[in-house]
User: Which sequence fits this backbone?
C-alpha cells in the first residue's frame, strides 16, 4: 500500500515538474476562457464550512531524510465563519496538550508545561514540519490571490486548470503560487513560491472525502523544496504527510475557541 | 640631599620594608590585573558590539518604510547633527538589520540566523576587518551578491567559499522572499555577536525586504576611543533634539553592561580594601621602625637635622616603599597577564564573548593605573604621617639615652 502511494506521489511530482516544461495541452472549453476568479471562489467554497463547525483527527508523519520519521496526532476544531481554529496535540506523549488557537489575525501557541501562551505567526512551520500554521485556516484563494496565467493540464486521472497566482497584498505568506484545480473544482496540487520566484514547497492533495456538501482532503503530502539530504547517493526532500480522519460537522460550544478551554485540555 | 638619605635608609632597612613592600606589590598586582582584565573585557565587548551593531554610538532611525526622498532627508539630518556635535567619527555606517526570522539554505540544510546584517562594505569594511577570517577574502564583499557567514553556519550547511546559498527573509508585510548570495568569506566568531550572523550588502537586503535600496535602520558612529561613547552619544542627542535617538552601543547589551559595571565595582572594592590594609600596615610598621630608630633619629637631630626634615625623611622612605611596591606590582601584572593571554581559551564555554581571537584580552589604561598608584601612594603617606610626626617630636637628649 505504501509503495502504491509513493508511486502515486512520485507520479504527481513528475507531472507537476513536467508542467514547468510542457507546453499547454488542449485548448480551453468550447465556451471560451473560464472565469478564474469564480473558479477560485468555488475551490474555496468546496472546502469551507461557513454554516457549521468542523472537527477532525489529523495525523502527521514527518520524514526527514537521514534523520528518520516522526508522527504526531492532533485534534483540529474549525469555525470558518469566524475565521478561528483550535488545534490540540494528542500524540506523542511529549507533545500532548500543546495547542494553537487562532482568532482573527491572532495566533497563539500554548505550552502546557510552562502554562503559557506565546504569540506566533501563521507563516511559521507547524511543529517544525513542512505544514504551516496557515494551512489550517479557511481557504481564501480568491481573496488572497489574482490569476496571472493559466493552462490546461492532466494531472494523473484529473483534467486540471493550472493557474499562476500572485498575492494581492504583501502580507500573504507565499506571494506566488501555482495551483491545479480539477474540473470538479477541487484543488489537486499547489506549488508555493517566494516573492523572487524560488520554488519553496509542493503540496499534493491525493484524495478527498465528502463531508456533508463539502469536501475535506483525506491525504495531503507536502514536499519542502529547500530542505532534504542525500540518502544512498540520491537527494531526498523533507516531506510531511497528513491524513484527516473522523471528520465531523457537529456544533461545538463557543468555549471551545478560547484560551481557557485550551488550558483545561492541556491539563 | 634628603632624598639621598631617605634612599640610603630605605636600602639599608630593606628587610624591615620587605614584607610590606611585597604586600603593596601583591595588592597593586591584584587591582591592576582585575582592572586590566575588566578593561580588556570591556574593549572586546565594545569591539564586538560595534561590529555587530555598526558603531560605538548608534542613531536609530526606526524600521518604518520610507521612500528615497524621505530617507535622504533623514540621513542628512542625522549627518548634520553628528557634524554639529563636534564628534569626530573614525567611520560612519548605515545598517539594515534583520532578526531571527532569517534562514539560510544550502544543499538541503537550513540554519536560522540570529541576525542578518546589511552593511555597506565600501564605507565600513575597514571596521569589520577585525573579524577572524578563516577562509575566503572579505574584500570580495564588494560584490553586492556576496555574503560572509560564520564558521558554525558554514559547518552546519556544509558550505564553502564560492558556494551559492539561499537567504530567506520575510518582506515588510510578511511575504516570504528568497535571494541567492555567494559565500565570499567565512569568519570565526563564537560569541553571540557572530555565532549565527550573516553579513550581506545593505541594498540587497533592503530590496529583499521590500524596501527602497537606500533604506537603513541605524546610523552608526565608530570612535577612535570607545570609552568616549557615552559623551559622544550625549552630544549627538543634543543636536538631534529629539528627532532621533543616539545611544552608546553598550545600551543594546544591558546584561553585559551590568556585568562589566559589577566587575568594575568589585575592582574598586578590592582597591578600597587594599588601601585600608596598606594604611594600617604602614602605621603599625612605622611605629615599630620609629621605636627601633629612636637613637638614630636622636643622632640626626643632634647633628642639626631639623624637625620638619625628620618628618619628611620618614615620609620619603614611605614614598619609596610605595613606589617600589607599585613598580613591582606593575611588572608582575604585565608578566603574568602576558603569559596568561598566550593560553588559547577557545574551548572554554562562556568566555568567548570576552576573548580576542581565542585569547584573554587585557588593557592597561594609563589614567586608571595612575589613579590607583596615586591612591596607594597617598594611603601609604597617610599611614606614615602619624609615626613621622612622632619621630619629628623626638627630643635628641631623650633619644640618645634610649637603649
Assistant:
Amino acid at each position: 500500500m505504501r509503495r502504491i502511494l509513493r508511486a502515486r506521489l512520485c507520479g504527481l511530482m513528475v507531472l507537476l515538474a513536467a508542467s514547468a516544461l510542457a507546453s499547454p495541452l488542449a485548448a480551453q472549453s468550447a465556451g471560451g476562457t473560464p472565469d478564474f476568479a469564480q473558479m477560485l471562489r468555488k475551490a474555496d467554497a468546496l472546502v469551507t464550512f461557513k454554516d457549521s463547525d468542523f472537527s477532525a483527527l489529523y495525523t502527521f508523519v514527518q520524514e526527514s531524510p537521514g534523520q528518520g520519521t516522526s508522527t504526531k496526532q492532533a485534534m483540529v476544531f474549525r469555525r470558518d465563519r469566524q475565521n478561528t481554529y483550535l488545534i490540540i496535540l494528542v500524540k506523542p506523549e511529549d507533545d500532548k496538550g500543546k495547542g494553537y488557537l487562532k482568532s482573527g489575525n491572532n495566533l497563539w501557541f500554548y505550552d502546557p508545561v510552562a502554562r503559557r501562551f506565546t504569540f506566533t505567526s501563521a507563516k511559521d512551520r507547524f511543529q517544525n514540519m513542512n505544514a504551516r500554521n496557515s494551512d489550517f485556516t479557511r481557504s481564501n484563494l480568491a481573496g488572497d490571490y489574482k490569476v496571472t496565467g493559466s493552462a490546461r493540464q492532466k494531472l494523473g486521472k484529473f483534467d486540471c486548470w493550472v493557474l499562476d497566482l500572485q498575492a494581492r497584498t504583501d502580507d500573504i505568506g507565499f506571494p506566488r503560487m501555482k495551483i491545479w484545480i480539477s474540473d470538479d473544482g477541487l484543488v489537486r496540487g499547489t506549488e508555493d513560491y517566494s516573492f523572487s520566484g524560488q520554488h519553496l514547497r509542493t503540496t499534493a492533495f491525493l484524495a478527498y472525502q465528502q463531508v456533508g456538501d463539502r469536501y475535506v482532503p483525506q491525504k495531503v503530502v507536502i514536499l519542502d523544496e529547500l530542505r532534504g539530504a542525500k540518502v544512498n547517493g540520491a537527494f531526498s526532500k523533507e516531506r510531511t504527510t497528513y491524513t484527516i480522519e473522523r471528520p465531523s460537522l457537529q456544533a461545538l460550544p463557543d468555549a471551545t475557541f478560547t484560551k481557557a478551554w485550551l488550558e483545561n485540555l492541556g491539563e | 640631599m634628603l632624598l639621598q638619605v631617605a634612599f640610603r635608609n630605605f636600602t639599608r632597612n630593606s628587610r624591615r620594608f620587605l614584607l610590606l613592600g611585597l604586600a603593596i606589590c601583591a595588592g597593586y598586582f591584584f587591582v591592576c590585573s582585575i582592572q586590566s582584565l575588566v578593561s580588556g573585557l570591556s574593549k572586546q565587548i565594545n569591539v564586538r558590539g560595534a561590529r555587530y551593531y555598526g558603531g560605538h554610538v548608534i542613531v536609530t532611525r526606526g524600521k518604518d518604510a520610507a521612500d528615497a526622498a524621505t530617507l535622504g532627508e533623514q540621513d542628512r539630518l542625522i549627518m548634520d547633527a553628528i557634524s554639529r556635535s563636534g564628534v569626530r567619527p573614525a567611520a560612519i555606517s548605515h545598517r539594515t538589520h534583520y532578526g531571527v526570522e532569517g534562514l539560510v539554505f544550502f544543499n538541503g540544510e537550513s540554519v536560522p540566523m540570529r541576525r542578518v546584517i546589511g552593511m555597506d562594505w565600501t564605507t565600513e569594511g575597514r571596521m569589520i576587518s577585525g573579524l577572524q577570517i578563516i577562509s575566503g577574502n572579505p574584500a570580495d564583499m564588494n560584490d553586492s551578491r556576496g555574503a560572509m557567514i560564520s564558521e558554525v553556519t558554514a559547518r552546519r550547511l556544509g558550505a564553502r567559499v564560492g558556494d551559492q546559498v539561499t537567504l530567506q527573509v520575510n518582506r515588510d508585510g510578511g511575504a516570504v522572499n528568497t535571494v541567492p548570495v555567494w559565500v565570499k568569506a567565512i569568519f570565526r566568531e563564537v560569541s553571540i555577536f557572530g555565532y549565527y550572523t550573516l553579513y550581506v550588502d545593505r541594498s540587497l537586503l533592503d530590496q529583499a525586504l521590500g524596501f527602497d535600496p537606500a533604506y537603513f535602520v541605524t546610523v552608526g558612529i565608530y570612535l577612535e576611543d570607545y570609552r568616549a561613547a557615552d559623551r559622544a552619544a550625549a552630544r549627538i542627542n543634543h543636536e538631534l533634539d529629539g528627532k532621533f535617538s543616539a545611544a552608546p552601543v553598550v545600551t543594546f547589551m544591558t546584561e553585559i553592561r551590568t556585568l562589566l559595571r559589577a566587575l568594575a565595582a568589585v575592582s574598586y572594592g578590592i582597591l578600597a580594601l587594599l588601601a585600608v590594609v596598606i594604611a594600617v600596615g604602614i602605621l603599625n610598621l612605622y611605629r615599630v621602625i620609629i621605636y627601633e630608630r629612636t637613637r638614630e633619629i636622636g643622632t640626626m637631630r643632634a647633628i642639626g637635622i631639623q624637625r620638619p626634615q625628620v618628618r619628611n625623611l620618614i615620609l620619603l622612605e614611605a614614598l619609596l616603599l610605595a613606589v617600589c611596591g607599585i613598580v613591582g606590582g606593575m611588572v608582575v601584572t604585565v608578566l603574568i597577564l602576558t603569559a596568561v593571554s598566550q593560553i588559547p581559551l577557545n574551548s572554554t564555554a562562556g568566555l568567548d564573548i570576552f576573548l580576542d581571537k581565542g585569547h584573554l584580552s587585557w588593557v592597561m589604561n594609563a589614567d586608571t593605573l595612575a589613579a590607583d598608584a596615586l591612591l596607594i601612594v597617598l594611603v601609604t603617606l597617610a599611614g606614615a604621617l602619624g609615626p613621622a610626626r612622632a619621630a619629628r617630636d623626638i627630643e635628641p637628649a631623650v633619644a640618645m639615652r634610649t637603649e
Notes: The radius of gyration of chain A is 19 Å. Chain A touches chain B through 24 residues (CB under 8 Å).
